Amino acid sequence: MSTKTITGTAMLLAIALVAQSLRIFFPFIPNQVSMFLIGSIVSASLVLATWRYGVKNGLIIAWLTPFVAYMQGMLPMVPFIPIVAIGSTLYVWMVKYWQHRSRLGLVLCSSVIRAAALYTGFLLFFQSFQVPQKLMTAILFSMGWPQLITAILGIVIALLIESRMRS
């Protein structure tokens, strides 16, 4: 692995982790705003790391960000870490597969698969374990259509950055 790859991946991981920390530094930002802002930045970091440095580097970010989210209290239970990481892993694989194919396929397939994996993963978890109704409702909501939007925005942001870097 080259120094450029390590440094680039580390920078994108840092961007994702700083984005996740916005809730801590700016607690007055409404949850709905922070969810879309942070989710879109993290998604863009995943996409850029995957496209520029490879799937393995996208997966590093995909697996570290949910762990840090748990440490920050954003994921309230340890079993949520792998559920989020698996959803992000599928997203990384899909954005890599669709990178040089149809833009519509890239946006739709990658985003729908991520949102569906997250929602389904949490739903299966909640069907298997007793979780307070209020927590279950909040998490299922945030893992539904908002994940679709943040995944789409992450790809759009990554495409815009990539086009700027080429010119």
From TrEMBL:
The keyword Transmembrane applies. Signal peptide: none annotated. Keywords: Membrane, Transmembrane, Transmembrane helix. The chain crosses the membrane at residues 6-26, 33-54, 74-93, 105-126, 138-161. InterPro entries: ECF_trnsprt_substrate-spec. It holds the Pfam family ECF_trnsprt. The keyword Transmembrane applies. This is ECF transporter S component.
